[in-house]
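Subject: sequence -> structure tokens, single chain

Hey, anyone have a minute? Need the predicted structure for the following. Not urgent.
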Amino acid sequence: MLDEPYRWVEAIRNRREYLEDQLRGASPVVGLAYADGVLMLTTTPGPRKLFEVYNDIAFAAIGHPADLEKLRKAVIDIAHLEAFNLSASDVSLQRLVHLGLGPLMKNAFDEILRSPYIARAMVAELDPANPAERFYTIEADGSFASAGDATAVAGTRQGEEAIITRLADLAPAALSLPEALRRAVEAWGLGALLADREQEGEPGEAEGRAFLAKAARERRFQAAVLDRTLPTRTKFRLLPDASLEEALAPFTS
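Reply:
Had a minute. Here:
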């Protein structure tokens, strides 16, 4: 029995390695703020990856489609339970992550005889009480981090860091939606390319444009916004294909 703690540590290490391997090829999700709200962009081979949670809160994730659907349903249930037990104004991104998604994913990760969620998640809130917590990213082990103007979840740490660095100089108050889409596409391309290529180092501009041109032909881009200008209670909307085609046009011409 003396070796049981070491077996548990080894099992946790193996789960981390397994998750890293399973998520490596995932298409990144890019999140950034712009003048009228929040934008999230990714690509998907089929099922949606961007969803409304509750009025001005959105959810996105990378990973196994079945686990993404489980997490989507879970976070929606948590949000509506909060609204029922308290009030709609008490449904906040911080509470959903700290009291809901974080513990949920950690419990699944720590139970060795249970499969963990093969996912990394991102949630966004339109106008949080603390602007530095506009985004949260949640790892498969339940750890989470907040971000203000831009963030990402990707299949590799290198891809995530490259996307965040590329978007670090943005001034959201002066950023229109078309410009935000263009910047998000560029950042997505960098993160996806770094995960796709074998050599080290940041790719050159020509390589990046060639990769985006190929992606525009072969992948289905998807984008959604939380738009504070909408007159409805819900601020979530998926962007039409025409908007995405316009954002991709500079890289396909």
